[in-house]
Amino acid sequence: MLLSVKSVCKNFGQVSAVKSITFDVDNSAMIGIIGRSGAGKSTFLRMINRLVDASSGRILFKGQNVLSLRGAEMRRWQANCAMIFQQFNLVPRMDVVSNVLHGTLNQRSTLSTAFNLFPRADIQRAISLLERLGIEEQATKRVEALSGGQQQRVAIARALMQDPEMVLADEPIASLDPMNAQLVMDALRRIHDEDGRTVICNLHTLDTARRYCDRVIGMSHGEVVFDGPPDQLTTAVAREIYGADESFSEHSTSTEIREHAEHESVSQVQPKTPAQPVTTVN
Ligand SMILES: Nc1ncnc2c1ncn2[C@@H]1O[C@H](COP(=O)(O)OP(=O)(O)OP(=O)(O)O)[C@@H](O)[C@H]1O
Ligand SMILES: [Mg+2]
Fold it and tell me: What is the pTM of this model?
């Protein structure tokens, strides 16, 4: 068993954000979590990554309860289930390569961090990850000069720098236009298909979950109300997940990702001053 979530709950004072979630992931998978605003999707992902402490329950990864990890062990786990956020959480004024290299931060000494010293092998790895994600031409630019879709792919590269077994993405495309949304979802699908990493992705639209995920978990009021393959996600089930009445239409949750992405527009914005250079050590 890869991941086993057992009766996990989270209360914020009087609010039950997550009420006893249980499910298993046997093998590497790409899983989408859907549900209306406030259903508990972010709280749940953040509990896996230990950004939020669960009130009760257990989360076992390969048999080990990750909710009881402390200190260095907990940080190792956090690197092993790298998170990607809607707002990218990059350092905007820093260049792209340095942002990606920050994925190795918890493996480096304070001194090398202070002087921005990175091993040459790490820099080469960062650049090959950027190549893989189709954004190597942006490597020396400041992050703030990139489009949202490019920034999210930088965040994916930073996550991959940690070589995680799982990638947790909290609404990774909610701030992106349809073309960039497609590029980012394609990238997440590839890191599952090609690397065998498990991807768990909170999504705000049904059609994206249907199109990209092998398994969809529907949450409502902190509970799992659907867990199955996308083809079982009928309109009636979707209505239950979203708590909508007869007027519910799929279209209202749709971003309508286009069939064919157009050529990616490369931002021409130049940084006012050169980005901070990366220094190598051997
Ligand atoms: N830090 C917090 N303190 C208090 N209440 C919180 C906190 N974080 C979340 N909640 C509450 O927990 C519930 C679940 O929130 P959560 O952010 O997990 O939902 P979500 O499904 O991710 O929603 P959205 O689609 O809007 O991102 C909500 O009622 C929310 O108000
Ligand atoms: Mg959320």
Answer: 0.87
